[in-house]
Amino acid sequence: MHMHKLEKLWLIFGVCTLLIFLTTLGVSAFYMGNKPPSCLTTIDPAKIDTAKPFDKPGLHKVEGKDWEYELVFVASAFSYNPAKVEIPKGAKVKILATTKDVIHGFEVAGTNINMMLEPGFVSEYVTTFNKPGEFLLLCNEYCGVGHHMMNSRIEVVE
Fold first, then answer.
1. Residue 151, burial from CB neighbour count under 10 angstroms (0-12, 13-18, 19+)
2. How many helices (H) and strands (E) does the chain have?
3. Is the dihedral of CA 34, 35, 37, 42 positive or negative?
4. Residues 6 or more apart from 44 whose CB is under 8 A from it?
5. What is the pLDDT along the chain (158 residues), one digit of tens a residue?
């Protein structure tokens, strides 16, 4: 089989590009330890109201951790608990969220916070709120007829 010189060149270029990509991915995944977030923390959806820290949703100051505050959210049928929370500007916050019923989304508009909440699992995200203002928390996974009303507010204050 005869191949044109340019076909061979493009074939070599494509194979080399693929090898570089796979090598970069392998080094990132194995050597540097980058991996997708996993749901290692589980919770019984029927006992969320009595399980710590979900028995007291809201913002809590913590000591001796890499973050200053813990923000606990519980999603349920077309609502988030708490409905509104105030966070000091510049605070490093660990967000813990779970759901009681079905899969919900957890997206804070205007930030890169975006999680999926699944019954039986705890989702975590650590972030710093540097910009003051009010941020809308939306469900971005269709969860039923009242999905469009499911929101909460995070207010970052000076």
1. middle
2. 1, 10
3. negative
4. 51, 120
5. 788 999 999 999 999 999 999 999 888 777 766 666 655 788 888 899 898 899 999 999 988 888 889 999 999 989 999 999 999 999 999 999 999 989 999 999 988 899 999 898 899 999 998 999 999 999 999 988 988 889 999 999 98
Rounded to 5 degrees, what angle do the CA atoms 38, 44, 48 make? 105
114-117 vs 104-108, strand pairing mode = antiparallel
Q: What's the 3-state SS for 67-85?
A: CCEEEEEEEECCEEECCEE
What are the backbone dihedrals phi and psi of residue 88, each rounded to the nearest 5 degrees, phi first? Answer: -65, 145
Tell me how far apart the alpha carbons of residues 91 and 82 are, in angstroms, rounded to a whole number. 19
Dihedral sign, Cα of residue 148, residue 82, residue 130, residue 122: negative
- Residue 73 CA: distances (Å) to CA of 14, 38, 54: 47, 18, 7
